[in-house]
Design a protein that fits this description.
The protein is α/β, with parallel strands linked by helices. The protein contains 13 helices and eleven strands. The strands form three sheets. It has a four-stranded antiparallel sheet with strand order 2-5-6-7, with no helix packed on it. Strands 9-8-10-11 form a four-stranded parallel sheet, sandwiched between helices.
């Protein structure tokens, strides 16, 4: 499937999501208007609807001949009203309802309102459709727009919405109420935390094992213990989740609502970052294994630390060897000769620039000097991409670029290349088994930090949504 067609499909999926959302809003509005003025209330076992009488004429009450527990409430006006049980031995003493503007009848105890059954079905269909569209978009983006943060976010959002859908479906009972919907929304974060426990447990243990091996082989440093820190955060997050779930809390209704709000925000935030990690891991593995088309004009080799004598260390040598291997593969497939752009400046503790070190190595591997374009001013990946692009544009009017780096670094480097306007593909070299997980955690933290405003927006969104649900909806 061509890149152009994929991008067109992604665009259509975006339009479809907007259309589905518009239809959802219209359907919700129409359903509410059509159902206004009446509400069916299912009474607890042992109660008969014919025994209930409203205290005033704001509503009229009747019962379903086919089910003595089903009370039908019709609105005559606006306001709140108690519907009392006049049976000599009542199981429930009253039902408390409120008639809202437009004739919507609202059950103050269950949260049900006129048309709630139809609306819950509409909500479930909508969540299913959006989850499906996000999943399809994620798959297509991985093929075409892998190096965009939108791709990573689509994957995480699809997983999160899937947990809401599963929670709503498993909560469906014969006496389904709006409290079930509120509960599904409030407990989505907790449910996703539980669903992902086996995966995250394996991830945390694997990360710990690889990090211990890394420290033994490479020595102790803050960068080399990031994996252990992440493992502790994951395990600690679960321990706190289980503690919070089993915490007995008593107090006023207001205090209970505040406690529920804080719990929901914590579970959701924890699940949110878990899903971002899972999505980033999927994207990272795909990026490291993706094979670019053999039609490139230039390959940028991203620099890293060199030895004291100015020769490339094994990590950097792997990047150079990967670039050379790609160039040979391209020539074997008839793709034409490619030029090398070693990129990296001179650090304060380095005898020569990383770019010069890479150039010297390329020459020893039989690469002609005319095929090497030196970029020796950059100090980070952003500058690697930007300064290399300037050099490449001076050499070629219509370049097709690929960059070579370590496997764990391909995803973030690709996103940086997109931001710098390279539109480049990436190739990743292999690293030692114990090095990859810790290094990827470092890359993931970098990804989060680069989009902190977006994550802050969603945290604020969660706070607002769960504050509204917990502070206003019936408990």
């Amino acid at each position: 499937m061509s890149i152009t067609r994929n991008r067109r499909l992604i665009r259509y999926l975006g339009y479809t999501s907007l259309i589905v959302t518009l239809i959802f809003i219209i359907a919700m509005s129409v359903c509410t208007v059509i159902s206004a003025g009446q509400l069916e209330i299912m009474l607890p076992e042992g109660n008969r609807a014919e025994d209930f009488r409203p205290e005033n004429d704001i509503v009229q009450v009747s019962h379903d001949p086919g089910n003595e527990r089903r009370m039908i409430v019709n609105a005559n006006g606006r306001g709140r009203v108690f519907i009392n049980n006049e049976s000599p031995e009542p199981m429930s003493s009253f039902v408390y309802v409120k008639v809202l503007p437009g004739g919507i009848v609202y059950d103050m105890s269950t949260g049900n309102f006129s048309g709630y059954r139809q609306l819950t079905v509409i909500v479930q269909i909508y969540v299913f459709m959006i989850t499906l569209l996000l999943t399809l978009s994620f798959i297509l983006r991985c093929r075409t727009e892998l190096f965009t943060y939108s791709t990573l976010f689509c994957g995480g959002a699809a997983l999160f919405l899937a947990s809401i859908m599963i929670t709503m479906l498993t909560a469906h009972t014969a006496d389904f109420t709006m409290l079930s919907v509120y509960s599904a929304l409030k407990n989505a974060g907790y449910s996703l935390t539980i669903y992902s426990l086996p995966l995250m447990a394996v991830f945390a243990v694997s990360l710990t094992v690889s990090n211990i091996a890394l420290i033994k082989c490479e020595g102790k440093s803050f960068v080399n213990v990031l994996g252990l820190i992440m493992s502790v955060l994951i395990i600690g997050g679960y321990v706190f989740s289980f503690f919070l779930d089993r915490l007995f809390f008593s107090g006023s209704e207001r205090q209970m609502r505040i406690y529920n709000t804080l719990s929901c925000i914590y579970y959701t935030a924890f699940a949110y970052f878990e899903m971002m990690l899972v999505s980033a891991s999927l994207c990272g593995m795909i990026a490291a294994r993706k094979k670019p088309a053999p039609d490139k004009t230039h390959v940028i080799i991203l620099g890293c630390a060199i030895a004291q004598d100015g020769t490339p260390l094994p990590l950097l040598r792997g990047r150079i060897d990967r670039a050379i291997a790609f160039a040979k593969e391209q020539q074997d497939k008839g793709g034409g000769e490619i030029k090398f752009v070693p990129s990296g400046g001179k650090g304060s503790d380095e005898v020569i620039s990383e770019a010069e070190s890479m150039k010297n190595y390329l020459l020893t591997q039989g690469i002609d000097e005319s095929r090497v374009i030196l970029e020796n001013k950059s100090a980070n990946t952003q500058e690697n991409m930007r300064f290399s692009l300037e050099k490449i544009k001076a050499d070629c009017a219509e370049p097709r670029i690929v960059f070579s780096t370590s496997g764990y670094h391909v995803l973030r480097s690709g996103m940086i290349s997109e931001a710098q306007g390279l539109n480049a593909e990436g190739i990743g070299c292999r690293t030692k088994w114990y090095f990859w997980p810790n290094a990827f955690i470092r890359e993931f933290i970098g990804l989060l930090a680069s989009k902190w405003r977006r994550h802050m927006f969603w945290m604020i969104f969660f706070i607002v949504v769960f504050s509204i649900i917990n502070m206003i909806a019936p408990m």
